[in-house]
Description:
By secondary structure, the chain is an alpha/beta fold. It has helices spanning 14-23, 36-46, 60-71, 107-125, 137-150, 164-171, 173-194, 218-232, 239-244, 279-293; strands at residues 3-10, 29-33, 48-55, 79-84, 100-103, 155-162, 200-205, 208-213, 246-250, 256-260, 263-270, 300-303. α7 packs antiparallel against α8 (218-232). The two termini are 37 Å apart. The relative contact order is 0.11.
Amino acid sequence: xxxxxxxxxxxxxxxxxxxxxxxxxxxxxxxxxxxxxxxxxxxxxxxxxxxxxxxxxxxxxxxxxxxxxxxxxxxxxxxxxxxxxxxxxxxxxxxxxxxxxxxxxxxxxxxxxxxxxxxxxxxxxxxxxxxxxxxxxxxxxxxxxxxxxxxxxxxxxxxxxxxxxxxxxxxxxxxxxxxxxxxxxxxxxxxxxxxxxxxxxxxxxxxxxxxxxxxxxxxxxxxxxxxxxxxxxxxxxxxxxxxxxxxxxxxxxxxxxxxxxxxxxxxxxxxxxxxxxxxxxxxxxxxxxxxxxxxxxxxxxxxxxxxxxxx
Length: 311
């Protein structure tokens, strides 16, 4: 879930981090890391409002990692604020993807108001799902259409939970939300572990999550997502229901029914078999494959491998 009041500070300079904490006291929560690399798990997991990084020299490793972070569709919205030494010369804005900067000598006079403005701006412009912190429908649409327009070959996967409504009815929406948070983290972590760059995970809404990957990676990743999910989901049930492997809940007609534990269905389409001109065309085939997967008992994924002339 996105935390609009957290600022991650990256610096090896304890004097600098102490000053930043002092000047921002009461405005936000400060989380400190010595290096950008050591902060990545936290950043991906918590989705902070601002990344404030100390850039005191032209370190190509830091600049490269920072640019990769800003180029990632999941974290492209993250506001990156740099602190430069007074004599530091910026190598060129095209080579350093940051949103704002401040010189060290101006910290006391300006940093509080500049960070506050950045947080307000982020709250106005970021379109993410408030529950999972994943990009929402606007970014999902842009990601698919941008790749189609560029002629990229990629796979679009559409994941949906089975028997999630009976779980909500029995355990309540707050526990259902915990399942959705787990689902978002699980898919994001599994996708990024297999394909750290050029992949994308977005939250359509409810229990629907999509991810974009290379065609040769999507089936293996979907299988891992299913395996991890099926092992984790029993822990979200009370011991009695977990032991039985099912729950009793009321259906839409008010009748008591027995439902299995939540499963996951994934529909997949790759554009290496068929040309798609519009994101909606590709999304519809992925959705169709997801509906097909949901007809199979248990968690599974289905890939569209039909002859293009029949699609």
